C-alpha cells in the first residue's frame, strides 16, 4: 500500500526545493513497494536529514551513490535458498532494495551513518556565492557632482 504525503506547506517556506519534494512524494523503489520506509526532516535552513529504516543490513550491504541532482541508496543482500525451508512465515523484509531521490540544485549529501538499523543521511544546500542574491546599495549623489557642471557653465 502506497501512502502519499502532501508537502505543499513545506514548499511554501522552502523555495527552490520543489524538485526534492516531488521526488520524495514519489520515491522510486525497484523491488518492494514502500521499503525501506523513510523520514525527511528539515533540520536547519538549507539542511535536511533523510532517515531510512534498514533493519538487518550491515554497512557492507548498503551502497550510497550521488549523481548530479540524484541520490541512490541500494541495499544489496543475497537470499540464502536454504533459509526458505526454515521459515514458516517471513514478515520482516530481507531482500535487496533501491531508493532514488531527486535532489534540487546544489543539494549535497554530506554524511551517512548506520545505527541500530537506521541509515541517516545529512544533506545540505550549498549555493555558490556567484549564484546567491546580493543587495546593491543605491549611492547618494555628491553635491560637487551636481555643482560641478553649473560652475563650468558660469565660467563659460
From TrEMBL:
Domain SHSP, by residue range, is: 29-141
User: Record's superkingdom?
Assistant: Bacteria
Indicate whether Ion transport appears among the record's keywords: no
Going by the UniProt record, its keywords in alphabetical order are: Stress response
> InterPro entries in the record, alphabetically?
A-crystallin/Hsp20_dom, ACD_IbpA/B, HSP20-like_chaperone
Q: Which family does it belong to?
A: Belongs to the small heat shock protein (HSP20) family.
Q: Which PANTHER family does the record match to this protein? A: PTHR47062, SMALL HEAT SHOCK PROTEIN IBPA
Q: What is this protein called?
A: Hsp20 family protein
